[in-house]
Amino acid sequence: MPPRQVREFAALAMEEVPALAQDILREIRAEYPGLPVVLDDSGEPMALIGIRRALEGFVQQLASQEGRPRYHLEVFQEFGRGEGLHGRSLDSLQAIYRLGVRLAWRRLAEIGQQIEIPPPAMYELAESGFEYLDGLVDQSVRGYAEAAAREAGERLRLQRKLMELLLSDRRSDTGSGASHGSGSGSGGPASGTGALGNGLGERAARVGWQLPERVAVGVLLRPAREAVAPAVGEGVLLDMEAEQPRMVVPDPDAAGRPELLRRAMTGWSGAIGPPVALADAAKSLRWAEAAVRLMERGLLPSGEVLHCTEHTEALVLLQPEELIEDLARRCLAPLEHCGPAHGRRLAETLLAWLETRGGAPEVAARLGVHPQTVRYRLRQIRELWGDEVDDPDRRFELELVLRARRLRGQLGRA
Prior knowledge:
The protein is an alpha+beta fold. The protein has 16 helices and 6 strands. Strands 1, 2, 3, 4, 5 and 6 form a 6-stranded mixed sheet that branches. Strand 2 and strand 3 form a beta hairpin. Helix 3 packs across helix 5, helix 12 packs across helix 16 and helix 14 crosses helix 15.
């Protein structure tokens, strides 16, 4: 097109911009009656400002014949942010943009016919219009992504605050004490959480988390520093910011929940504490932390996420290490004068006898040795411990410390 004709087209189009913007906004509101009206500081609709600036920018680009269009970034990015912050998709916004372009094209085509612009040039104009539209959408997508990232970050922050409150020892102490006094007829989740106060309920509501009656708390060991968070599913609170990530599993015994967690935890290791009342979540956390410490020492299997309820014996016997070792020194003192190998054989025989409460044949079958060998060892045990092996309390202590040593790998497994 000759420059003169381009300038004439741009001048006529610019004159039409205010009325055209009003017409486009009217059509958009008719098509989308639920569209919120957001006003700027002067009381003018932001949508009208955006439409007018989009039209002005496009016409100015034609008049200047610049290769790269200039967008009013803040307006269209703000449109995208608004969609993201209100939880809407970009589909409706893009549909509104397309509607606006179609209406604008009709008016621009009329102007083109009025000044006799040739059809090939009008085709180029149409292509430029849709290219310009793509640029507007890109700006809105950028704003939408920014809002979504901000929203996700805020949700994670609120979720961590919720977990901190839920897992605090002070809340467990006060909550469990109060929950014992609640009536049995109240029923429902509120009966198990009323003692937690409104603070927890308010924080849970802000992240859309429904307070459960029971929870289990997990502590995880990262397979690698850059490991992606496990897909634990809806409702499970997960804090990946801690050195050892934590998670709060609502209603851990609900149908399908254990299998879902098992699949999600593939490649991870750690421990999930026992199911407890919501007010006692800190207690479940303590057991999970204890299990993880034992895993790091090689006393519990690693390479998977363990359930504390399946390793109760190890957690009970291995966690209070100083007390168990003190008891072991006193209970196993008679073995101090035996050689290490012989002392270990006597200890294994004594434990097998305590566990079976049987005679030499039963103990021999458990140990895989000859009954006569067991009889010889049992006579030595009688000589070393005397009547203590007949005292129920001493037998219990002996079995306790010998089981603990077996769990540590200091005795063989029968």
